[in-house]
Amino acid sequence: MNTLLLFVLLSLLKVAIVTVILLTSVAYTVLLERKVVGRIQNRWGPSRVGPFGLLQPLADGIKLFLKEDIIPSGVYRPLYLLAPMIALGCALISISVIPFGAALRVHGVDLFQIADLNIGLLVLLAVTSVGVYGIALSGWASNNKYSLMGSVRATAQMISYELALGLSLVGVVLRAGSLRLRDIVNIQSAHGMRSWNIFGGFQFVAFFIYLIAAYAETNRTPFDLPEAETELTGGYHTEYSSMKFAMFFMAEYANMITVGCVATLLFLGGWSSPFGHLLPVIGGPIVQALLPVAWFVAKVFFFLFLYIWVRGTLPRFRYDQLMGFGWKVLMPLALANIIVTSLVLAIRS
Amino acid sequence: MHLVLFLIFAGLCLAGALNLLFQRHPINSALSLIVVMTSLAVLYLLLGAEFLALAQIIVYSGAIMVLFVFVIMLLNVSAEERTHGSRIAYLAGIPGVLALFAILASIFLSLTKNLGSAQLGEFLVTTSDLSRVLFRDLLLPFEVTSVLILVAILGAVVLARKEH
Predict the structure, then answer these.
(1) In which band, very low, low, confident or very high, does the pLDDT at B13 lie, cut at 50, 70 and 90?
(2) A159 touching chain B per CB within 8 A
(3) CA-nearest residue of chain B to A78?
(4) Quick one: fold of B2-125?
């Protein structure tokens, strides 16, 4: 009973720490986006609150907390209140299966991962597929035609791209022979960059399919039709204000971070160093434990930067182009990738 | 521990199923069905069928029910009117349900010895075990089922095609 109690306490502590870190990174991803998009558009971005505008997320948070929470009279209340919770809840749950660094056990509790499941990848897909309800229900419960249009678009888009997304991961799973995220990283960490799935595993087609489908899943440019300002005012969150709006906002950025983490784990070798054993071993055991986490964070940062870069440069798709691209280009490509990968694996084994 | 989880999620599953029948708005019924399917997935997980549990969530809660909700949203279906139903339904339905329940219960009770039993949390069916059975021992039925689904897709395309 004592070990069980210790396990529960340590796990709760881990969940609390990871949630705080995730929410802080969500806040600073927003700042990063405003800064980088500002520089892309030849302006400064936020620079007044704190040094280099670094306290801007705090100011935004206080503003959103103190705004009046308006619930329009025509809404369907239970679902209107439930929708942002589903969206944010699903976005936060998916971080629980992601390993941030090499396994390091203290009292039998893994320090760098909340839950090490042997079906971790499927859990990520399942949580993503349930997350659609947050957006779908918000638009319907708002009783507003723009919201409804936004959520109908979001639902159709997310169902369509989920297929290509799931199929693009099959090649990686075939190569690793496991759905456990740690196993998938471990087979990529032998020879540095050469054994990463994107290079040594010849999964670059799958990588680009995953990236494109994930952009569509998170409703980001160039697939941000569910919240296209020019045609739908705010899309599915038009009728939401104050913290309920903030919950959708946080969910979007938390999903971006999750996508970055998953792309890092599945295609860029997770926490393993790109130089393999070429770098000399430096520092004590603490540095050795934290160095993989630093590589992981650097790779996730790269994906977040890519998200923002794409947003700053690409225009929005037209809706029929979006659907046609998902079903007629990405799906067949993902299927072809599975066939080629399994043929190569079968011949080589 | 397993028993506590089983009781919680079995209760949730039954509550969802009852709520599905009693709700008058289609969207509430659809959401109750999602609760039922997700709690069923947890029950599969308790029995050690991890792949089946997650497939249940991805396919049923995530894909099929999203389509249900999508159609309800798109058609903007409103709450159904309360009707008393036909008298035949009461006269034939309730005894029918009772008879079915009695038959099933007696069959299960008489066959308990032959059916065997699965304890909660006793074994684990890993994904590789499952795929070995599916792609080696049951390969033909599996492939025939997939062809059946393909035929269904083709049928749907033919039915939905616009006449020119």
Answers:
(1) very high
(2) yes
(3) B28
(4) Four Helix Bundle (Hemerythrin (Met), subunit A) (1.20.120)
